Amino acid sequence: MNLLVCISKTPETTAKISFTEGNSKFNQEGVQYIMNPYDEWYALVRAIELKEKHGGKVIAINVGPASNDIVIRKALAIGADEAVRVDAEADSSTFVAKQIATYAKDNAIDIVFCGKETIDYNGSEVAAITAEMMDLPFVSYASKMDFDGTVATIERDIEGGVEVVQLEKPFVLSAAKGLAEQRIPNMKGIMMAKRKPLNVIEAVAQESKAKIVSYSVPQGKQEVKMIDPENMDELVRLLHEEAKVI
Amino acid sequence: MSVLIFAEAKNGQYKKTAHEVVFYGAKLASSVGTEAIVFTIGDGANAADLGKFGASKIWFNDAEASTDSQVVSALISQAAAKAGASHVVLSYSALGKAVAGRIAVKMDASLVSGANSLPEDSKINKSVFSGKAIASFELSGDKHVISLMGNSIKPEETGASGIPEAIQLEVPASKIKVLETKTVDGEVPLPEAELVVSAGRGMKGPENWGIIEDLANVLGATTACSRPVADTGWRPHHEHVGQTGVAIRPNLYIAVGISGAIQHLAGVNSSKTIVVINKDPEAPFFKAADYGVLGDLFDVVPRLTEALTKFKA
Predict the structure, then answer these.
(1) Interface residue of B244, B262, B271 to substitute, partner A, most A CBs within 10 Å
(2) Which of A108, A113, A211, B103 is the least buried, fewest Cβ under 10 Å from its Cβ?
(3) DSSP of B114-135, one letter per residue?
(4) Which domain holds residue B214?
C-alpha cells in the first residue's frame, strides 16, 4: 500500500510577519520555519500508523527549493520511508496540487494525506484540487480514521459536530486535530533519516490564475480600555453605544 | 454572463451564511454589469426569500442533500455552465472548502478561498497568516471561483422574494456513504455565530460552566472554549476555538479565564470586538482586547450577566 503525505513548510506560529519589496514579498529574514502542524502532527503520523499496521510505504512529498530539505528530513525522521521534493517555487495551490496529483497518478498511490490547511495561507485548497485532478473522492477535516486495508471509516469535523463517512481507497483526505498524536523524532529516527531516499524531481507546468500581488497588515487595535470589575453596567453601555455589537 | 451563487441549505433552511453569499454575489454581479443567479440543492421550498438579498433568479435541483464534494461540485459546475457564469460564489464553510477547488478545476477558473472583500480591478483580499496580514490576489482569466469568509459582509434585504425554478442536472453517484451525523441542534454553529462567549482553564472545572451558559443565554451567544479545556474533556471538541480548532470572526468575543496564547489568538483575532475577563494582569490576551476586566471571573461574569439582563429588559 502506498501512502502519500503532502508536507508544507510554514513560518513558525509565533513568527513576526512582515513584508519587503513594496509589501509584495513575505520577509523571510529571521523567520523560523516548521513543517505545517496539520501535515506533521496528524496527516503524517496517521499515515505512518496505517503503514505499521497494514504494510506498504509512506512517501512524503513537498514542492519547494532545496532549503525545504530540512523539513523533509524531519518527516523522514518521524517515520516516512522516502521523500520526493518537486524542485520549484510553490507559487499557488493549483500549481502544488498539479505536482502532487501527477506524482500520485504515476506511483499508484492508495491514499493522499494532506493537512486541513496551512497556517500561513489558510486556504484549504490543495487537497480538494488534488482530488479533482485525480478524479478521486475527498474527505476533508478528518479527525478520526479506521482503515481495514480497503475500506476507511472516517469522522470528519463539520459545523457544530461531526459526520461519519465510509469509503473505499483510493481517496484524498485532509487531516484535522484528533486524527493522530504528535510524534517527536528520536535519535535513531534522525540518524536513519539521513540514509533514506530524498528524490528531487522536476515540476510539471501549471498556470496559476490567482497570484498574490501585495500584502497589508490589519490596522492595529487601539489600547485596551480597562473597565472597573464592579461596574459591568459600564461595559454593557460601551458594547452597546461604542462598539455597537449588542 | 452571470454570477452563480451557491446557497447552502441546512435541513432545508437558509441561514445567515447563505444570505451573506447571495448579497455578496448580487453586489459582485451589479459591479460587473450582469445578473445574479442563486443555485441550491434540494426542493427549493424555502429558497424564495433568497431573492430579497438581490438575486434575480433562483434555481434549484431536486437532488438529495449531499456533503460529497464530487457530487456537489458536479452539480454546481453544471449549473454554472447553464448560467454561462463568469463567477461562482460560495461560502467558506466545511462544504464550501471541499468543493471550491474542485469547481475551479472543472471550470478552469481562478480560485480565492476565504475572501473578505469584493473584487476591485481584478484584485481581491483575503486574510492570511492566521489573521496577521491581508493578501491581495490578482485574478487572471475570465472565470473565477470565490469562497466568502463568514461575517465579512452584512447582508441587507434589497429586493423582493423570487420564484424558485427547478433545473435538470445530471447527478453523479456518490462513492462516499454517510453513516451518521452528530451535531448539536438548536445552537448557532460557531463559525456562523455573531456573539461568542468562550472560557478557559480559569474556570477550574466543568462543573462551573453554568455561569458561562447563563451569560451566553442572556446574550443569545454561542459558547466556545480554549484548547486545554477541550483536551481535558471539560467541553466537547467542536467548541474548541483557536489555531487547531475552529477559526471564528464574530462581532463580539468574550474570553473568560483564557490567558491568550498565540495559538488561541490565531483563531479569534479577527473578531470585531474582544472582551477579556481575567484576574492575571499579565495575561497576554489583554493586549489583543478592546475591553478588559481585571478581576475574579466568578464575581465578574455573574455581574455582567445581571447587567445584561437589566439592559435587555
Answers:
(1) B244
(2) A108
(3) EE-S--BTTEEEEEETTTTEEE
(4) 190-312
